[in-house]
């Protein structure tokens, strides 16, 4: 894990879109409120990947909640990382858990959860959830706000 150095951040400069999740870089920045526990939420309502079998597109609404420790996840790098899945073939479960583990490995949060709310293909929506760490006492964690799939009902 590399320490934060302004010249290495993707923020504030043009960078090429990564063509795979393995080539994407997640940047972290120091947490200016390191002595305070609080919740950070990222929503990615238009996440896309492809089915590893058919090559057809898959779509999801991802919600990432975390309680930072020493580091914050830099949002531009998250956008580039999420976009790197556009041509990546993986099942819904793999995409969701891979993203959660990668973020947790980079920023070492006190607690992290990701909800992957996948749109139906073949008539079956799949929701995938991953969590790691311990939620500090007293942290308010709102509902992720993504309705379960109801179809035309």
Automatic annotation (TrEMBL):
Its main location: cytoplasm. Pathway: tRNA modification; tRNA-queuosine biosynthesis. It catalyses: 7-aminomethyl-7-carbaguanine + 2 NADP(+) = 7-cyano-7-carbaguanine + 2 NADPH + 3 H(+). GO terms for biological process: tRNA queuosine(34) biosynthetic process. Substrate binds at residues 73-75, 92-93. It is found in: Cytoplasm. GO terms for molecular function: preQ1 synthase activity. GO terms for cellular component: cytoplasm. Pfam families: QueF (PF14489). It is an enzyme of class 1 (oxidoreductase). The keyword Secreted does not apply. Keywords: Cytoplasm, NADP, Oxidoreductase, Queuosine biosynthesis. Its EC number is 1.7.1.13. The active site is at 51 (thioimide intermediate), 58 (proton donor). Belongs to the GTP cyclohydrolase I family. QueF type 1 subfamily. Catalyzes the NADPH-dependent reduction of 7-cyano-7-deazaguanine (preQ0) to 7-aminomethyl-7-deazaguanine (preQ1). HAMAP family: QueF_type1 (MF_00818). PANTHER family: NADPH-DEPENDENT 7-CYANO-7-DEAZAGUANINE REDUCTASE. This is NADPH-dependent 7-cyano-7-deazaguanine reductase.
